[in-house]
Amino acid sequence: MPLKRPHHHRDASTHLRVNPVFSREPIHVPRFELPDDGMDPETAYQIVHDELMLDGNARLNLATFVSTWAEPQAQQLMAECAEKNMIDKDEYPQTAEVEARCVHMLAELWNAPDAHAAVGCSTTGSSEAAMLAGLALKRRWQHRRRAEGKPADRPNVVMGINVQVCWEKFADYFEVEPRYVPMEGNRYHMSAEGAAALCDENTIGVIAVLGSTFDGSYEPVAEISAALDELQERTGVDVPVHVDGASGAMIAPFLDPDLAWDFRLPRVASINTSGHKYGLVMPGVGWALWRDAEALPDDLVFHVNYLGGDMPTFALNFSRPGAQVIAQYYNFLRLGFEGYRRVQQTCRDVAVRLAKEIAEIGPFTLLTDGSELPVFAFTVNDDITNFSVFDVSAALRERGWLVPAYTFPDNRTDLAALRVVIRNGFGHDLADLFLEDLRRVLPRLQAQAQPHRDVTDAGAFAHGTEAATTERRTDAKPAAPASA
User: Fold this and answer.
1) Where exactly does CATH 3.90.1150.160 map onto the chain?
2) What residue spans carry the region label Disordered (predicted)?
3) More confident call, 139 vs 83
């Protein structure tokens, strides 16, 4: 069934009646089919430009993790590289060289045992990187099972119910049974005990999330790794860990250097991140890295001739621009370690301060406070019965602020929250304006007799909080109760 488009759901005219330049007569432009003839570039630009004014202001979008600002020099480099296909490494060898340099820089940042022995690649984003990492886990498990003379037709992957939706897609697209560790009480992500309880000899890996999209919290990667060590000692089942560091892998190295979550843990086989989130690049670039060549089965890798030598490639997309990879390298050179640390620390400072002041307003309770990812979630107090988080989200949207409201997944579907993402460019001044607008809408909301909106009015800008459900698991053994 083809995907439905927005215009299928409303009575829309099939033509645009526009007057793009005041000195010209109005013209008719078909909405859903190619026009018979072309038009002046100024007219085409004005038509598209005017429609795009209806989009939200990206700088006021507190839903997205994606970078919404870049320096002019980075944008210039991206424009200069827009026509370069990243996959054509033999045609654009220096772009390929820059990609390799970024991989080595990330490997060092993530404490690979040998940064030059680590393997990795750029992707269109962290979702593609997650798919590649999942495929490597599956293929590595299949090779081991076949070498042992055992069946390799029932793989499963263990993850928290809070994972980003790309992992549910991975399990569906590549026929891997997903096993979800549910939330319990005030624990909003996977526990080490819950992860180990769902593992068996068919488990290709455990996905640990460094920075949950629901509330910004880190999952306890070291505790999960230790629980899997104990599981192996007790049962012989050896399960690797993949760290989904879409956001946190570009926060923790700079702000939480003593936190063990990366290749310092021997059980961590691979890590992905999003360069266009806290990597500070405009969309879209992601990165997938493996501890060493052994962690990435060679039969998944294609080899191309590169300057007379061998260049391995691993990707789901064949054509994508090299511009974002170049921008990533620019940022690495421009900021260095200390520059990234300052940027991320500022984001965290703003998040912690804003969360604290929201909690002090009165009707709100924090779920997280921005002290891990510069992201926090809050909810309406239990004694508030006349407005909902969905009312708050809608009221803020009237002022241009995009703040997602959503319900949590199993077993906390009773919990509805708002989430605020602080990115580079959202400083204390914008935080003050946001607080003023939040305080401004409260009297009107408090005057309501009952909530006007519920989850059906939440909109579609959840950015990763599309909840998975344990009901989608097939042939999974029951989840063991997980401790808080």
Assistant:
1) 347-457
2) 465-484
3) 139
Q: CB-hemisphere CA count at 13 Å for 136?
A: 34
Contacts of 287 (CB under 8 A, 6+ apart): 102, 103, 106, 120, 121, 122, 123, 129, 272, 273, 274, 275, 279
Between 227-231, 340-344, 395-399, 454-458, the lowest mean confidence (pLDDT) is in 454-458
Lowest mean pLDDT among 93-102, 298-307, 462-471: 462-471
User: Directed axis angle between helix 93-109 and helix 323-361, to 10°?
Assistant: 40
Whether residue 359 contacts residue 368, with contact meaning beta carbons closer than 8 Å, is answered with: no
Q: So what's the pLDDT on residue 478?
A: 31
Contact 245, 234 (CB under 8 A): no
Please determine, for residue 297, whether its predicted confidence score (pLDDT) is greater than 80. Answer: yes
Fold assignment, 74-331: Aspartate Aminotransferase; domain 2 (3.40.640)
Rounded Cα gap, residues 187 and 483, in angstroms: 8
> CATH 3.40.640.10 residue ranges in the chain?
74-331
CA gap 239, 261 in Å, rounded: 16
3-class secondary structure per residue, 139-162: HHHHHHHHHCCCCCCCCEEEEECC
Among residues 192, 247, 178, the alpha carbon closest in space to that of 467 is found at 178
Cα(126)–Cα(130) distance, integer angstroms: 6
Fold of 347-457: Aspartate Aminotransferase, domain 1 (3.90.1150)
Better pLDDT: 412 or 456? 412
Cα separation, 339 vs 332, whole angstroms: 9
